[in-house]
Amino acid sequence: ISFNAIDSALSSLKNCQSYINSGMDVATQVALDLVESFNDEEDINNMEKVMLEYATMDRELNHYIKAFEETINQVKREKPENLPDLESLAQEKFLEMESENSDSDLQRNEKYMYFKDQLKEMKKQYHGNDTIEEIDEDIAVTRSQMNFICPITQMTMKRPVRNKVCGHSYEEDAILEMIQTQKQKKKNVRCPKMGCSHVDVKGSDLVPDEALKRVIDSQNKQ
């Protein structure tokens, strides 16, 4: 059996994921633009609906890819004399995965979570605390202590990244260099923000702090 055609099709499907990711990135930027220009709340809510639609597509695509991969691996393992109907087998697995869907899956989509977090931060920076609903208490505390100065370089940040674990922000190059240096010494990196108890900063926990960057850029223009 030649699986080349199937592998090629799966590869194309995986490429579709990059388009979904790009779409979610654009939707996040548009939502932040809307907050920055004090647009109507309804427009911002519409961008959230767009994000949830993308998250739904992403979940469906993931299930489809997984169903086909599992089917192919099963056939390769069992090596049946007569090749079964691969499409029907994959469709069966796909529908089984889809039947277990819940709304909470979408809320846990990494890009959707990033969208919500950055939106909260942006609203706080531009409209004050009273417009934020249901902000996590821990995030509120760490955010209220946040300023534009990197705790490592002691200079205003140009490309801030935020630690998803403790909520603190640093200059991207500075924190990555610190992680690399400590890694060579086989040591963990303690969060350089004074008073933070987080003792294992990882590169994979860092995300661009787009909301903070926009506020810093806006201040610099003034």
TrEMBL record:
Segments forming domain SP-RING-type: 135-221
MF terms (GO), sorted A to Z: ligase activity; SUMO ligase activity; ubiquitin-protein transferase activity; zinc ion binding
Keyword Zinc on entry: yes
Gene expressing this chain: Nsmce2
Record Pfam families: zf-Nse
Gene3D superfamilies, A to Z: Zinc/RING finger domain, C3HC4 (zinc finger)
Natural source organism: Falcunculus frontatus
Protein name (Swiss-Prot/TrEMBL): E3 SUMO-protein ligase NSE2
UniProt xrefs under SMART domains: Ubox (SM00504)
UniProt record, GO biological process: double-strand break repair via homologous recombination; protein sumoylation; protein ubiquitination
Family: Belongs to the NSE2 family.
GO CC, any one term: Smc5-Smc6 complex
Listed pathway(s): Protein modification; protein sumoylation
